[in-house]
Amino acid sequence: MSTPSLSTRLAAEFLGTFVLVLGGCGTAVLATTNPDVGVGWLGVALAFGLTVVTMAYAVGHLSGGHFNPAVTLGVAAGGRMAWRDTPAYLLTQVAGGLVAGGVLLLIASGQEGFSAGESGFASNGYGDRSPMGYGLVACLVTEVVLTAVFLWVILDSTDSRAPKGFAPLAIGLSLTLIHLVSIPVTNTSVNPARSIGVGLYAGADAVAQLWLFVVAPIAGALVAGFSYAVLFADDEAVSLPEAMET
Q1: Transmembrane stretches, by residue range (predicted)?
Q2: Rounded to an integer, what distance in angstroms lies between the CA atom of residue 16 and that of residue 2?
Q3: Global model pTM greater than 0.85
Q4: What tens digit of pLDDT does each residue of 62-115 get?
């Protein structure tokens, strides 16, 4: 099967990132506010994992199913996509996240008295904006390490030696696990597009802390990508779209 055109891959990345942010952050914003019937942190973790599973199966064979700038950079560092395509992927993913955040804000604003700034709007944070008050260093370490784990799962579950057809499940389940660990710490980013997509609507305090949730996931992804190329290099490695076809 021929590699899809760049425009097709970008459309798939936009759609996948849109659904990820709308589904995951939407669950956090809309479905956790009622203490009696809300889904809680477990529900949010499952929502993020399920969106990745469904969209990876839906469009992963077209674009590789990144839906995350950190994933794109880590995949490129691991030799699984061309660096020349990364800028277009990154811009498209951020755009998809921002559009999803705008749609979510429109929906959430339908409730009388809703304020994105006061509610937090599923944004990430450290210090007094951490769900459980974790400091800057703890949040930085959390995001770097867990993003690296996420990339190792992605790269190893899609190489030629892995069981075929199960990569989206492994990737989605790993994202669920990552959320279970880190929602109390940072509200879980591991994805700059997810953080920007809601953070820019959540007020000045959220925007001021966005840098961490761009820098840390990218750092973790690059560590994982370069180390994968050295430690786990696959002589028959294929690009992520090709890997998702099998």
Answers
A1: 12-33, 39-59, 88-111, 131-154, 166-186, 206-231
A2: 21
A3: yes
A4: 999 999 999 999 999 999 999 999 999 999 999 999 999 999 999 999 999 999
Distance of CA 159 to the CA centre of its chain: 20
How far from chain centre, in Å, is Cα 194?
Answer: 6
For the chain, what are the domain ranges?
Answer: 6-245
Whether residue 237 contacts residue 80, with contact meaning beta carbons closer than 8 Å, is answered with yes
Query: CA-CA distance, 9 to 118, in Å (whole number)?
Result: 37
Q: How confident is the model at residue 36 (pLDDT cuts 50, 70, 90)?
A: confident
Collapsed DSSP state (helix, strand, coil) of residue 198: helix
Closest residue by Cα to residue 11 from 108, 116, 96: 96
The greatest distance separating any two alpha carbons of the chain, rounded to the nearest whole angstrom, comes to 57
Pair 48, 179: CB distance under 8 Å: yes
Q: How far apart are CA 100 and CA 245, in angstroms?
A: 27
Are 69 and 218 in contact by the 8 Å Cβ rule? The answer is yes
Question: Is 239 within 8 Å of 3 (Cβ atoms)?
Answer: yes
Structure tokens at 150: 């996420």
Going by C-alpha positions, the residue among 145, 194, 147 that lies closest to residue 155 is 147
Tell me the two tokens of residue 97. Answer: 């996240």
- Which of 143, 220, 198, 144 has the alpha carbon at shortest distance from 23? 198
Q: What is d(CA 26, CA 72) in angstroms, rounded to the nearest whole number?
A: 23
d(CA 135, CA 149): 21
> What is the residue whose two structure tokens read 């430690």?
231
CATH superfamily of 6-245: Glycerol uptake facilitator protein. (1.20.1080.10)
State residue 213 phi and psi, 5-degree precision: -90, 5
